[in-house]
Design goal:
There is one protein chain. This protein is an alpha/beta fold. It has a single domain (28-285), classed as P-loop containing nucleotide triphosphate hydrolases (Rossmann fold, 3-Layer(aba) Sandwich), CATH 3.40.50.300. Helices cover 33% and strands 21% of the residues. It contains nine helices and eleven strands. The chain has helices spanning 31-39, 57-70, 87-90, 133-145, 165-173, 187-202, 233-241, 253-260, 273-285; strands at 42-50, 75-79, 99-100, 105-106, 108-110, 113-117, 152-158, 178-183, 206-218, 225-226, 245-251. α1 (31-39) packs across α4 (133-145) and α4 (133-145) runs parallel beside α5 (165-173). The longest helix has 16 residues, at 187-202. The N and C termini lie far apart (49 Å).
Amino acid sequence: MSEKGKCGGSAGCGSGGCSGNCESCGEKGSPKQRIEEAMSRVKRKIVVLSGKGGVGKSTVAVNLAFALAATGAKVGLMDVDIHGPSAPKMLNLDGMTLASNGEKIIPVEIGTLKVVSLAFLLQNPDDAVIWRGPVKLGVIRQFLSDVDWGDLDYLVVDTPPGTGDEPLTVCQILKDAGAVIVTTPQEVSAADVRKSVSFCRQLELNILGIVENMSGFVCPHCGEVTEIFAGGAGETIAEKYGIPLLGKIPIDPAVSAGGDAGNPFARINSETPAAKAFAGVVKAIR
């Protein structure tokens, strides 16, 4: 067993203290302290979770961040879906890269919205990210500690689906965050959402509420909303666990088209059922 220094790290990071490479202590210059300093300037942290993929979690995260920024708030969007980063595409930021001022990483900015994603670091957007846990967790910590977020009203974090390494790391670090859980109406999604609720409660993470996505289909011709999935999972789980149902967002072709074109639907079609429903979600969170 290696010798322990007074900082609690191994002798390799300074047996008489910490040289700044120890991740487990709060000595000056350590990653932990840098994260604490950066996050102390963020008023509210919102982690967007989902029990399974394909429920529209990233769509909710991106549009939530964009809608909050549209109110004039200073907002950060941190995309830590390492293997499937989609925030840049949804915001028409393909091809952008992250810069550095010599001390901090400079996020990409759209008005009052600051965006950081692993997609900005890939030479080719089609490159697969084949990383094991420790490397991914190191990137997440670096996004929290070494990005020049500045003073923010909100930091929205888009995590991968499930309850694995990435969401666990984010939620353990951002202990004062609130969680938004995204689901669809089907029972197959409900089973995974119950796991997400259990995940948050075991970590003592405040659950802001549930968003039921794909809740009905909006006819592009008449605007009528038709239920196509049975179950009402979001509403059922919200009632069972005493969690707020933030909103039920119907399937709207304009939402999909906007995401593919890099045009968040929170910015357009404000009178559509989907946009109105999402406006209710934003209002509930603010």
